[in-house]
Amino acid sequence: MQNDNSYSMKASLAAEFGRLVWWGAGALVVGAGLLGLFWQWPGAGQWVLQGGLLWGFICYQTGRRLHLNRPEHAAPLYAELGWGNRFTILRSWLIAAVGGFLFQSWPEGPLLVWLPGTLYFGAAVLDRIDGYVARRTRHSSLLGNELDMVSDALGLAVASLLAFGYGQVHFSYLLFGVAYYLFHGGLIWRKRQGLPVYPLPPALHRRAWAGFQMGFLAVVLWPLFSPPVTTVAGIAFMFPALVGFAIDWLIVSGRIDRQSEPVDRFFRRLTSISQSVLQPVLRLGIVVMLGAMLERSGWPTLSGLGSDWQNVFWSGGLLVAALFILLGIAGRVVCLLLIGLLGRHSIEHSLLSIDYALFSSVIWLMLLGTGRFSLWQEDDHWINRYDGA
Q1: Residue 324 in contact with residue 330, Cβ under 8 Å?
Q2: Domain termination residue (choose one: 252, 277, 305)
Q3: Would you say 342 and 294 are in contact if contact means Cβ atoms under 8 Å apart?
Q4: Is residue 376 helix, strand or coil?
Q5: Closest by CA position to 101, among listed 88, 121, 122, 115
Q6: Closest-CA residue to 282 (of 241, 218, 215, 236)
Q7: Other CB atoms within 10 Å distance of the CB of residue 304
Q8: Which pTM value belongs to this model?
Q9: Three-state SS for 212?
Q10: Measured in whole angstroms, how far is the alpha carbon of residue 37 from the centre of its chain?
Q11: 3 state DSSP class of 329
Q12: For residue 257, is it within any domain?
């Protein structure tokens, strides 16, 4: 009787997944038809071919993991995917749709030019939602964890390659796009060579930084900003992430014994120094560099805005951002606002060395947080928490 029930659940799960596969393929065909009508038929043909290949890869990766659709290895299989996994598969479909634009020029038209970035933005939003939905519906699964990693890695690789193709980032940013695959390829190689693979301790920054990278890529795939500001931002976003990948590799390969007391004490001390010294110094440095930038360019400086109230808004935004960052009030959110204001400023002013340093410092403070001596850091808690837990 138990075997019959298990077979029934497997059949039900496979049937649901099969329907999603065909729905996704059908949506790509419909999308290609619309692109052909409103853009160009050769581009639409290339889009559906590339998107279809990526969708096939996603379906293959999902299908071979269906047996993990359970809360833990010893638990019974769920009879249905659940809304969390459905949202993750939808996110993967959006990434496949983004991949359809690879190796082509930016779509033309007042609406189509926004399409690649909007599709990726939708995938980034679903990345925050799928885990929340799974936890709230009590349908968390090993499959969901696996698909989340597959979708994150594929999305970052596709979006970074597309951003490079559009000329928005430096070619070195592609290294970040393939870092996940290099990392896990190295793990597979070690296992095949009979070498030990050591566990990684949990770290909140990995999830938060991946989210910031997705947000950055969505923005550069919109026609809002252009080089050199997007190039500088890409390098600033990439550098801490690559350092994190390198440290994680040293840990899993055993070159750093993360379980030993001296090493653990070193990392705790490093974290304390960052929070007590580096992050507060970054806050002060941002305010000083912002003042130097305004002294050079004048106040207000955005002649292209065309109205006094817009100049007042821009100038007031800089003053509020500087004050909030100095005091450590919702610093990460304010850094996001400041990045937008500085990006707007860069449209009318050539960037100097101090502007590069300012832009990079704001991005690093957003990634790290404002540290000690901050008055309000609730944005840190929201970024690092698992919604729905």
Answers
A1: yes
A2: 252
A3: no
A4: strand
A5: 115
A6: 236
A7: 9
A8: 0.92
A9: helix
A10: 32
A11: strand
A12: no
Report the residue count for the chain: 389
Helices then strands, counting H and E runs in the chain, come out as 15, 0
Q: For residue 330, give both structure tokens.
A: 């919702």
The CA-atom distances, in angstroms, between 134 and each of 7, 65, 127, 137, 227 are: 24, 17, 12, 5, 39
pLDDT at 146 over 90: yes
205 is written with which tokens?
Answer: 């920054």
Q: What are residue 329's DSSP bridge partners?
A: 376
Query: Could you tell me the two tokens for 279?
Result: 């992050």
Q: Is the peptide bond before 42 cis (omega within 30 degrees of 0)?
A: no
pLDDT 10s digits, 86-115: 999 999 999 999 999 999 999 988 999 999
Structure tokens belonging to residue 171: 């070619």
136: domain range? 2-252
Task: Give yes or no: residues 243 and 363 share one domain.
Answer: no
- By the 8 A CB rule, do 213 and 237 touch? yes
Q: Which two tokens stand for residue 270?
A: 């490093």
Question: Percent of the chain scored above 90 by pLDDT?
Answer: 74
Mean pLDDT of 298-313: 58
Tell whether the model's pLDDT for residue 307 goes beyond 60: no
Domain final residue pick, 252, 283, 315 = 252
Give CA 317 to chain center in angstroms.
26
pLDDT tens digits for range 152-166: 999 999 999 999 999
Please choose, from the candidates 20, 28, 23, 215, the residue with its C-alpha nearest in 3D space to the C-alpha of residue 123.
Answer: 215
Single out the residue of 117, 92, 112, 110 nearest to residue 43, CA to CA: 112
Distance (Å, rounded) from C-alpha 262 to C-alpha 321? 40
Contact predicate 288/358, CB 8 Å: no
